[in-house]
Backbone:
């Protein structure tokens, strides 16, 4: 297996992983920012409020985006197997 093919597969893996995680990370950070501002404004010091909100937001995004994520992973795997089998 040539180094260029290995580098290409690894590069595509990292790109796909980042692309797949963007919606989940965005939901997490936006919810954390919103709950942080809300708890600061209301002066509530209960960490469970922020934790429950982040868990709910990430769970909702995962429920919505799981089919899309699965399709992206399958496409990446089939492309990688094609590259590997062509060697």
Residues:
């Amino acid at each position: 297996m040539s180094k260029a093919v290995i580098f290409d597969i690894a590069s595509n893996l990292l790109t796909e992983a980042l692309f797949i995680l963007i919606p989940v990370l965005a939901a997490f950070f936006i919810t954390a920012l919103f709950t942080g501002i809300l708890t600061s404004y209301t002066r509530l010091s209960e960490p469970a409020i922020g934790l429950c909100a982040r868990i709910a937001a990430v769970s909702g995004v995962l429920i919505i985006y799981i089919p899309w994520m699965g399709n992206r992973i399958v496409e990446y795997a089939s492309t990688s197997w094609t590259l590997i089998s062509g060697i």
